[in-house]
Amino acid sequence: MFAHLPLTALRTFESAARLLSFKAAAEDLSVTPTAVSHQIRSLEHWLGVPLFQRLPRQVRLTEAGERLFHSLHGALLEVTQSVDSLRPSSSATQLTVSTTAAFAALWLVPRLGRFYTRHPRINLRLDTRSEVVDLQQDASIDVAIRYSQGDYPNLHGLCLFDERFAVYGAPRQVALAHQQRPPLISVHWRNSRLYADGWQAWCTLAGEQWLDDPALIRSYDEEQYALQAAIAGQGLVLASNILVSQSVASGLLQPYRPQVQVDGAGYSALCVPGRERHPPVKAFLQWLQEESLRDGHPPLARGGAPGRSPSAD
């Protein structure tokens, strides 16, 4: 049934398509770039269609190449997981989760103790690089927790929470804000106006003219820095109800005019279809569901859940 399949060429193609580089595929497979090129051309000849566009110093998948890669990558992943399940279990299982530094510091890490208590054999590694992570191309990432108003129809998704922004401050700063104009703490996201638009929307709803004086606005590049500044009493911060939840629960921050809130985006946990059945991934997604419910946010599992790559803030 499968005797006619050129398995070596298919495995070579999967590596080259995932890495979008014949040279990187050669390193991945421990062969020469010439051998990779030969296998790809042999596969293209066998199929009768080109799989790559050869451009100066790079290659790009054709439409046929994209179709083959998506089906082949999922199939090889299934085989890998089946083989791994038959091997004697090691002392620990690796799980790599990609997310933003802010989500990791303010929501995920404070709760991970409960995950490790339940799954002591899973060694979870956090990847908080600022670069966009393509789950279809980067097989080293098991799960990405993303934040977006967009959709990812080619990924398995678990919608965790929908976010709302409100203004928070240390108790003394909140009390003073009812009497005098407070200094503001803002976050300057590199790739989006979502946060800046949120401040404007909040001020419009609240009837405040706070943004008229730039001298009273202190800006940070990351949410965790902004929240630490607010905890230290340096002003009021516009913050996500998700990321601020631990600080509010501990009494370090409290809302100012809590009835005034503006919509944010949504957090989703995403993986390549089929990977959700891998035991460490399945355990982590189930735990995320429970933590979301603990916070009062019933999640909804569905393919193509809204999500943003960890760096697209």
UniProtKB/TrEMBL annotation:
GO molecular function, one term: DNA-binding transcription factor activity
All copies of domain HTH lysR-type, residue ranges: 5-62
Alphabetically ordered keywords of this record: Activator, DNA-binding, Transcription, Transcription regulation
The UniProt record lists the keyword Calcium: no
Entry's Gene Ontology BP terms: DNA-templated transcription; positive regulation of biosynthetic process
Region (Disordered): 294-313
PROSITE patterns the UniProt entry points to: HTH_LYSR
Superkingdom classification of source: Bacteria
Protein family membership: Belongs to the LysR transcriptional regulatory family.
Name of the protein described by the UniProt record: DNA-binding transcriptional regulator, LysR family
